[in-house]
Amino acid sequence: MSWNDLATLVDEGWEVASHSRSHPRLTGLDDHALRFELEESRRECAECLGVPCDTLAYPYGDADDRVAEFARAAGYTAAATLSSSLRNAGAHLWPRVGIYHDDPMWRFRLKVNPTIRRLRAHRMWPAHE
C-alpha cells in the first residue's frame, strides 16, 4: 500500500501500526540496527500520516524480551507478535492472529472464531498458521 492509501485509512478511522523500516527479523539484529529499525519506522509513519504511530506489528511476528524492551524504549505503547500463548503476553508482546490474503475462507473463520482463539491461547490447539 502507498502512503496515500494508508492516509485514506487513517482518515476513515483505522489505526496504522509500524512494521519496521526494512522488515528484518528483529531478534537477529544488533542493538544499533534494532534501534534504527524501530525508531525510524515510527518516525516515518508519523511524518507521512500526520498522526502519532504508537503501535508495532513485529515482522514475521518474531520478538523476544529484548526486542520488546527496545520497542518500549522507542515509544511504542503496544506491539504484537504471532505467539498463540497468553503466558508471556504484555503490552509489547501481545499475541495476534495472522490473517493472510491466501487464507481460504474456512481457515479465516477458524482464525477469528472466539472458541478456537481461546483454545489456542491455552495451548490446547496447534499454533500452526
Offer a concise description of the structure.
41% of the residues lie in helices and 7% in strands. With 129 residues, the chain is mainly alpha-helical.
- CATH fold assignment of the largest domain: TIM Barrel
Low-confidence stretches: none
When the domains are counted, the total is 2
Order of helices and strands: HHEHEEHH
How many angstroms separate the termini?
23 Å
**For the largest beta sheet, what order do the strands appear in spatially?**
1-2-3
CATH class of the largest domain: Alpha Beta
> How many helices in DSSP terms?
5
CATH superfamily of the largest domain: Glycoside hydrolase/deacetylase
What is the name of the CATH architecture of the largest domain?
A: Alpha-Beta Barrel
Description:
This protein folds into 2 domains: 3-96, TIM Barrel (Alpha-Beta Barrel); 100-129, no CATH class. The radius of gyration is 15 Å and the shape is globular. The chain contains 5 helices and 3 strands. The chain is mainly alpha-helical. The mean pLDDT is 88.
